[in-house]
Amino acid sequence: MSENLAEKTCVPCRGGVSPLTMAEARKLLYQASSWTIADDASRIVRTFRFENFKEAMAFVNKIGELSETEGHHPDIAFGWGYATVTMQTHKIKGLHENDFIMAAKIDRLSEQ
Length: 112
Hints:
By secondary structure, this protein is of the alpha+beta class. It is 37% helix and 19% strand.
C-alpha cells in the first residue's frame, strides 16, 4: 500500500460491508506496526506509556479531539502512566481501514 494512512480521512462506515480479513489487516498493520491485531482480527490494540497520570490524561484528551474530528472513536482505558487504546468498527464487528487510519494518526500524536 503506497498511500500514507495518517494522511487519509476516515469515511463513515454505515455497515453492510465485510470486516477485514486477517491477511488484509496485516497489510495495513505495517503503517501502524506498534499495534497488535487481537481477537481473530476483530480489533487492534496498543498501550502507550507515560511518566505520570497527567501525561496519560493529556494524551487521552488529544485522542478524544482527533476522534471527534475523524468521526471514529476508540475504546480507551487509562490510569497512572498508561493509556490502552482499542480500535474496532462496531457496526461491522471487526476491522475496517478506518481503524488503521486512526491508529496511524494516534501514533503521530504520541510522537509529538
